[in-house]
Amino acid sequence: MKKHLFPLFLLFLGSSAYAQQDFFALTGKDTPSIIFNDFRAIDAVNGISGESILTADSPAKVFSQSRNSSVNEDRNSYNHSQSATMATLAYDASDNNLVYMPMFSSNIYVLNSKTKEIALIENTVARVTSCDINSHMTRMAAGYDGNVYAINNAGTQFLQISKKNNQYQVNDLGIIKDDASNGKNSFTTIETGFGGDMIADADNNFYVFSTSGNVFKVLTKELKAKFVGKISGIPENYSVNGAAVNSKGKVVIASAKGAPLYEMDLETLHAKQLPGNLSLHIYDLASKYFANDRAASANPLVNLDIYPTKVDEGFINVNINDKSVKGNLKLSVFDISGKNVMKQDLPVKGGSLQQEIYLKNLVNGAYVVSITDESGRILLNKKILVTK
Length: 388
Hints:
Residues 314-384 form the Secretion system C-terminal sorting domain. The chain has 388 residues and is an all-beta fold.
């Protein structure tokens, strides 16, 4: 049975997801029941399918984290990396990894989209059984803080999958309960709240899109799911099984029934069909984008950048080579709550600057680095992830 899953700044990037390889789909075969087909890139602006990354029949190189060795998995079980029954997918952009779970298994898999190598994360935290639909993990997304999150059908497990010292850890954050205002639109019942997919926002909260088309906002700290509304503009029998934010800041939704992709505005919940006539059986979607993302460049310059975006040594580099940039610039660092946690002047001479910036006293987490000119005009906003 398939899964019963703003505005401060929007992220506008010119090039397509297909070219950048930052929007992905978990697809199935053309069958009535769930049968895994492949992971593939998707152009989520134009509705075009990209290259396949790993198919159900591909040879798999699986390395067990707990056993610290390669493993040969039983392909006749639910517990293997190419299981027929899969409904979760997240994209960890910092490492180019696809993170997923078979629906009837507690195993977590991390697929490197470049090398095609797979890490197996065995754990006792996820409590999943094939016969209990409430326990099935059907929603997953990367959070703004750099961790990956998953929610089971009934909301009784809210998993956080984090990485430290090259080792993945799994924590159960608790039970998500209905907000008192939800009424008959319950997050925890099959008809109104099960399945679908979820996306993250820049406050590290989540929006869950249930199979029925209902949308819930999950407040991470409060462990409450509040009914937001129902998606409009899609066919009445449309099964919402995948959701992810595209490069325009819109939410793309997909169906396991082989229906077209739709693009939805998170404020109005109104969806419109994307071009391209893409009609894949999509069980889940994943991207590197977030709702309400402050890391948008309002007036980006081609020759102004900071790197790396995954900071594991406490330093970032600012590189400017643009004669239109004059005077002293200001670099500011904001945490995910919007608090300014660091400031530094950038003296630019002749439109050129190469400077290493020490991110002193910044704890691990997600931040936005903003560079402004003397008039206060934003030249660059970019998200970084500190993992010292």
